[in-house]
């Protein structure tokens, strides 16, 4: 955890340094007496947590928290003060994770860091879920194929399998089969590999449609599609990873 200390009393900086040296995985990146300079520092620095004194001259801790909100910065903040009455003013601030009453003790600092670590893990998990959702939303759901001299936009979920033909390919769908002038290799390059797998030199199947695999055959409804010997290993690896 990378920490920032903001307190107008220099001796407090020393206490933080002494205590944090005894806590594993913690690094004090910088210390400030002036909270405005700390704001400037945050523009170009990655900090996980701030220990913030409330009672400071001119630009106090409350002013600092308001500026954090305006900038849209999400950083865990532990409030440090000798006056517990300030808790009312900051309790609803989204960045505040802990409240420490002076004098400083190792236990309260460690507990504040624990809260910050927990919050960081929640934020990282939230970002990860958003990225996965965005990635899924960005995946194409349709592909254009040249069928019967027309460009047809086929939904991937409607495609059951594709069979190679001389001079093209037969696209078997939930509705009706279509003949495309594209080769099987061309069609394979257009479809998402996460869903469509080539199991034979002459066949590509929609993995989502597979009902059963039996005796080197893939069963999809009424279709029994052979698994080619040269494609067998790749198909097994695909099944193992999906």
TrEMBL record:
Domain HTH LytTR-type: 183-241
Positions of the Response regulatory domain: 2-117
Keyword terms: Phosphoprotein
Pfam family, one: Response_reg
InterPro entries (UniProt xref): CheY-like_superfamily, LytR-like, LytTR_DNA-bd_dom, Sig_transdc_resp-reg_receiver
MF annotations from Gene Ontology: DNA binding; phosphorelay response regulator activity
Modified residues (4-aspartylphosphate): 53
The keyword Phosphoprotein appears for this protein: yes
Annotated protein name in UniProt: Two component system response regulator
Organism of provenance: Polaribacter dokdonensis DSW-5
Biological classification of the source: Bacteria, Pseudomonadati, Bacteroidota, Flavobacteriia, Flavobacteriales
């Amino acid at each position: 955890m990378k920490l920032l200390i903001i307190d107008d009393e220099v001796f407090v900086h020393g206490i933080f340094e002494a205590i944090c040296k005894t806590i594993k995985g913690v690094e004090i990146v910088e210390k400030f007496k002036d909270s405005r300079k700390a704001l400037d520092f945050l523009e170009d620095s990655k900090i996980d947590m701030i220990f913030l004194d409330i009672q400071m001259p001119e630009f106090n801790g409350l002013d600092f928290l308001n500026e954090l909100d305006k900038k849209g910065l999400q950083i865990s903040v532990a409030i440090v003060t000798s006056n517990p009455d300030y808790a009312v003013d900051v309790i609803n601030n989204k960045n505040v994770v802990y409240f420490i009453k002076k004098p400083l003790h190792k236990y309260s600092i460690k507990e504040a860091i624990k809260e910050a670590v927990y919050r960081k893990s929640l934020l990282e998990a939230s970002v990860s879920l958003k990225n996965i959702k965005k990635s899924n939303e960005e995946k194409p759901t349709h592909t254009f194929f040249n069928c019967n001299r027309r460009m047809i936009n086929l939904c991937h979920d409607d495609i059951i399998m594709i069979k190679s033909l001389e001079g093209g390919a037969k696209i078997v769908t939930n509705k009706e089969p279509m003949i495309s002038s594209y080769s099987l290799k061309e069609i394979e390059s257009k479809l998402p590999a996460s869903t469509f797998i080539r199991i034979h030199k002459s066949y590509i199947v929609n993995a989502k449609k597979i009902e059963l695999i039996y005796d080197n055959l893939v069963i999809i409804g009424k279709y029994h599609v052979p698994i080619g010997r040269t494609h067998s290993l790749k198909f097994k690896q695909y099944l193992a990873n999906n």
